[in-house]
Specification:
The chain has 360 residues and is an alpha+beta fold. The chain has helices at 9-25, 39-50, 70-73, 94-98, 115-133, 150-156, 204-208, 226-232, 254-257, 284-288, 292-298, 308-322, 331-339, 346-358, and strands spanning 30-34, 79-86, 105-106, 139-142, 161-162, 168-169, 177-184, 214-216, 219-220, 248-250. Among the domains are: 2-90 and 105-184, no CATH class; 283-360, no CATH class. 36% of the residues lie in helices and 11% in strands. It is elongated, with a radius of gyration of 22 Å. The structure holds cobalamin.
Length: 360
């Protein structure tokens, strides 16, 4: 890029070191830099779309080649700075919540404040700091929402490998982290890409996925994934999948929980990611009783709010249908479901009727 003809290689490698240091100061655990060549994964993405694994997530097919061509999304982009932010809060044992069918399992990334804003703000700050040294620097920060192939970019930046569960896995930090990026027109030296995958012969995630959504190594059929069913899908959850969802009411962590690499993960110290309203181990019945007002108030600033009250009740109804089927003492559950039998939403009524039928 001619704009930077005045910056020499030494300046650029010094700038890279600065970027890493600023990244750590801003609370990221790791920063890596990659070029923008993504054509091999463009093919994977195309095949995934062709098989309709994206279900109703039409945004996944809506941007042409922008996802695999960063320079089409932000003209002039030649490098991507990827950042890792660990999110796992130090909560009760996750397995014990999952195996207590009266409790609600909320995926660990969603227990506290929504990560999007927090991360984008920090990336924007990092971008500003870079501009203070490279004056004509053009950049844009992304977290999740834009057509960006985040995991492949992070893999290329040396942050980990894409595992069989499709998560980006880091050999020292597991996979309980978010990714975010800065697209830049600075010709920064790229880091060494992660070339090797360390899943070996392990297929635990494929075997333990409750709904069999990991249909082959590195391929998730989102239409079966509990994360998709509880968060992305609006409307009716396919009946055949409901009994397999257990008590997972928002997202699912099973493919990370069983991953042996997660024994190397660390808990986050971010105040914003600490659980609110006891969501790490709340009772299903209690959450099902929240009014719409309570839902809106208690999920303020949380990612959960985006699914809306109707999907919230729908998801909990399914979990209540799966709760404690074999025990005789489930009156409290049946009562809670009956109280919602005449809810104005047809979706809620249908899932409540299904749940009640499970207890008959
Ligand atoms: C759409 C989406 C979903 C969908 C679809 C998931 C999926 N696997 O695609 C749903 C709603 C199901 C979902 C769920 C979750 N998601 Co999500 N999701 C995304 C999003 C927006 C796009 C992902 C994407 O591009 N999918 C397209 C497919 C084709 O890509 P892929 O599955 O990753 O497959 C890649 C490889 O496996 C490879 N590949 C594909 N086929 C083949 C075949 C072979 C043979 C080989 C070798 C390779 C290969 O190429 C693909 C492209 O690189 C990203 C953010 C972003 N903009 O990137 C977040 C993101 C991936 N999600 C994230 C998270 C945290 C989750 C959940 C853990 C949330 C939860 N607890 O419920 C679950 C995990 C489920 C899972 N195992 O993926 C994080 C992941 C961080 C990390 N450490 O990897 C991201 C990066 C968001 C973020 N900014 O942090 N998600």
């Amino acid at each position: 890029m001619s704009t930077y003809s005045s910056i020499n290689a030494t300046d650029l490698s010094h700038l890279c070191e600065q970027i890493r240091q600023w990244g750590m100061e801003l609370g990221f655990q790791q920063i890596g830099i990659s070029d923008i060549e993504l054509s091999d994964h463009q093919q994977h993405l195309q095949q995934w779309l062709a098989k309709h694994y994206h279900g109703d997530m039409h945004y996944m097919e809506a941007h042409g080649e922008k996802r695999s061509h960063p320079e089409l999304l932000v003209p002039g982009t030649i490098r991507v700075i990827s950042a890792r932010l660990d999110y796992l809060p130090d909560t009760d044992d996750m397995q014990s919540v999952l195996s207590d069918s009266k409790k609600a399992y909320v995926s660990r990334y969603a227990l506290g404040r929504d990560y999007h804003k927090l991360m984008r703000k920090r990336l924007a700050k990092l971008g500003e700091k870079i501009s203070s040294l490279a004056k004509e620097h053009h950049h844009r920060a992304f977290v999740d929402s834009a057509p960006v192939l985040e995991r492949r970019l992070a893999e290329k930046a040396g942050l980990g490998w894409i595992g069989k569960n499709t998560m980006l896995i880091n050999s020292q930090a597991g996979s309980w982290f978010f990714l975010g990026e800065i697209y830049t027109d600075l010709p920064l030296p790229a880091d060494l890409a992660q070339e090797t995958m360390h899943c070996g012969t392990c297929t635990t995630c494929l075997e333990d996925c409750p709904t069999g959504a990991i249909v082959a190594p590195h391929q998730v059929d989102a239409r079966r994934c509990i994360s998709y069913l509880t968060i992305e899908l609006s409307g009716s959850i396919p009946e055949a999948l409901r009994p397999l969802m257990g008590n997972r009411i928002y997202g699912c962590d099973d493919c990370q929980l069983v991953c042996p690499w997660n024994k190397f993960s660390s808990f986050t110290e971010e105040e914003d990611f600490q659980p609110r309203h006891n969501l790490q181990s709340a009772e299903l019945v209690e959450l099902f009783q929240w009014s719409e007002e309570e839902f809106l108030q208690r999920t303020e600033g949380s990612a959960i709010r985006r699914i809306g009250y109707e999907s919230w009740l729908r998801n909990i109804a399914v979990a209540l249908g799966n709760a404690n089927k074999h025990a005789s003492k489930n009156e409290q559950i049946i009562q809670a479901l009956q109280n919602r039998q005449n809810h104005p939403s047809e979706i809620v009524r249908e899932h409540v009727a299904w749940a009640l039928a499970q207890h008959r």
